[in-house]
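Here's what a typical entry looks like (S-(Hydroxymethyl)mycothiol dehydrogenase):
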Amino acid sequence: MAQQVRGVVARAKGEPVRIETIVVPDPGPGEAVVKVQACGVCHTDLHYREGGINDEFPFLLGHEAAGIVESVGEGVTEVAPGDYVILNWRAVCGQCRACKRGRPQYCFATHNAEQKMTLTDGTELAPALGIGAFAEKTLVAAGQCTKVDPAASPAAAGLLGCGVMAGLGAAINTGGVGRGDSVAVIGCGGVGNAAVVGARLAGAAKIIAVDIDDRKLATARGLGATDTVNSREHDPIEAIRELTGGFGADVVIEAVGRPETYEQAFYARDLAGTVVLVGVPTPEMRIDLPLLDVFGRGGALKSSWYGDCLPSRDFPMLIDLYRQGRLDLDAFVTETIALDEVEKAFERMHHGDVLRSVVVF
Ligand code: APR
Ligand code: ZN
Ligand code: ZN
């Protein structure tokens, strides 16, 4: 029997989101219904509501979540009712070119539930990133559920479902930060600060946090940054070079997604160093770099999709580290809120007041 639950819906571009009754069908083959316990508020949710992703309104927002599997459809073997899971938005297919090459973290054919959740009048909802977890229950593909240690609090665990994983993975997976490396992180919001934490976890000797907001720099220091640079007050390229013996950092992580910060990252890295772009640019943005510098400086210019994570490999491992006190996910939960406070949380996010507001059910 389809169920009716409350969910946060964006009906039209720029309009405040509202709580609506949504209809969640029983899971079909390969699908699961998950009782959501916590879901973080991410920029991408706001981006959907502002029409920045596509025009497929109405959207059911929320995609950074943890919860309990309530029921599964035919043929589902990877999870069972009662399992505690983090939802991921890249359920790998196992058959595409990337998967066949043994690189499932890049899967080119990730999938979501086939059935649609709807409003009570039958209008189909487009779930944010194929999840839609600002809802008491949501329907996803079973591959979007990654089972983890149930002792981890849902508010903290859910964060691995998006922004925090993106930042951790930018350092650990994409950047390949290693013991003794120097790392600079440009932009220290939820994603950038997670990159700071990732760099520390990987054994970086120097971690330079760069932001235009001193509040974010203070948080970065608390999370393991060894140096901070306010790039409104100091040229970040010069500052990073100065802090690295005049050379630049081995790995520079760009967690803003703008041409000027990308250029800073490009020139703030040492010869043969790595730039990781994890901030997401908008379509009109362009960069103009001397091709000779691209060649002459060597190294690698990489982008990081979802921290190049493989949920089945990375989520349980990171939750274990969290449980052991080696990964402070709680530090990213600035506040917990109720389902009807998402609009207010967008406002706070817009003003840079929070790393993450997390809806708890
Ligand atoms: N130089 C340095 N830092 C900047 C600049 C700049 N020119 N402009 C903004 N910032 C800082 C902000 O002060 C803020 O601390 O970048 C940070 C961005 O953080 P959030 O707004 O919290 O965004 P976050 O969730 O961390 O995501 C960052 O990654 O996944 C993408 O779409 C996401 O592009 C976004 C980026
Ligand atoms: Zn997100
Ligand atoms: Zn694939």
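The longest helix spans residues 311-323.

More examples are in the samples folder.
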